[in-house]
């Protein structure tokens, strides 16, 4: 039975099954959209936190690191309450739409990108702060130099965020509802099809999801290796 399901899964992938690739397309679209907004929010938050001094900074860093481990189902519940009809944003009608799924993923991965950005930028700021101060280089000119020097590490942070987003299931199934041809993504479809006993589709989606995870990890490894090579040049 397992061998037959695996054979059917491979056949679905190679034949370009429209339902399977529709789910794949929505998954990538939602995750990339969430990644775009998370990068736009996370990079400035992490960089600003690293390069400024203020009272309560340690508490903010501790909070940011804690938010990296947000339980997805709790995030899904909170976003659901915000977007439900009785919630403050219920009038927008976003619940059970791809937009709601993007919002949930943004809440989940923004702290990851911001915390990793903070770690990278904080190390650079400690290393170069005295040099830039002695040359009287203003912070607005120093930031681009930091970002360029940390580009490989920041790409790793972005890839980590994408990997977290594409594999998310708890939050998106709560706010998206797993509606066929509307909000069904790979992780939620795998859960549904497995519960129905449709192992071929579940395995097919699982293999694609695994391939994406391997690709992201390979990219992270390649970026780290390139950064190390450039460090010795």
Quick rundown:
With 233 residues, this protein is mostly helical.
Would you give an account of this structure?
The chain has helices at 2-14, 18-51, 57-67, 72-83, 98-134, 139-149, 151-166, 170-176, 186-196, 199-232. The protein has 233 residues and is mainly alpha-helical. It has one domain (2-228): MetI-like fold (Orthogonal Bundle). The protein is globular.
Number of domains: 1
Poorly predicted segments: none
CATH class wording: Mainly Alpha
Q: At CATH's second level, what is the architecture?
A: Orthogonal Bundle
Shape: globular
Output the keywords.
single chain, 233 residues, mainly alpha, MetI-like fold, 10 helices, 80% helix
Architecture blueprint of SSEs:
Blueprint (H helix, E strand, L loop, with lengths): L1 H13 L3 H34 L5 H11 L4 H12 L14 H37 L4 H11 L1 H16 L3 H7 L9 H11 L2 H34 L1
Helix pairs in contact: 1-10, 2-5, 2-7, 3-5, 4-5, 4-8, 5-6, 5-7, 5-8, 7-10, 9-10
């Amino acid at each position: 039975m397992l061998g037959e399901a695996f054979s059917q899964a491979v056949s679905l992938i190679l034949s370009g099954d429209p339902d399977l690739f529709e789910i794949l397309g929505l998954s990538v679209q939602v995750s990339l959209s969430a990644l775009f907004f998370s990068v736009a929010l996370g990079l400035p938050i992490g960089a600003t936190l690293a390069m400024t001094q203020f009272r309560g900074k340690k508490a903010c860093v501790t909070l940011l690191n804690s938010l990296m481990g947000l339980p997805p189902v709790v995030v899904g519940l909170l976003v659901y309450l915000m977007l439900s009809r009785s919630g403050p944003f219920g009038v927008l009608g976003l619940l059970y739409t791809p937009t709601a799924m993007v919002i949930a993923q943004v809440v989940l991965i923004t702290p990851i990108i911001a915390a990793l950005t903070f770690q990278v930028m904080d190390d650079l700021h400690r290393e170069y702060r005295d040099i830039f101060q002695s040359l009287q280089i203003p912070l607005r000119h120093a930031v681009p130099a930091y970002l360029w020097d940390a580009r490989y590490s920041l790409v790793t942070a972005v890839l980590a965020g994408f990997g977290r987003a594409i594999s998310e299931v708890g939050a998106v199934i709560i706010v998206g509802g797993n509606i066929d041809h509307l909000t069904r993504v790979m992780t939620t479809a795998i859960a549904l099809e497995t519960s129905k006993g449709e192992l071929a589709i579940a395995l097919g989606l699982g293999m694609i999801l695994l391939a994406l995870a391997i690709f992201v990890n390979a990219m992270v490894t390649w970026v780290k290796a390139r950064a190390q090579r450039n460090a010795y040049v």
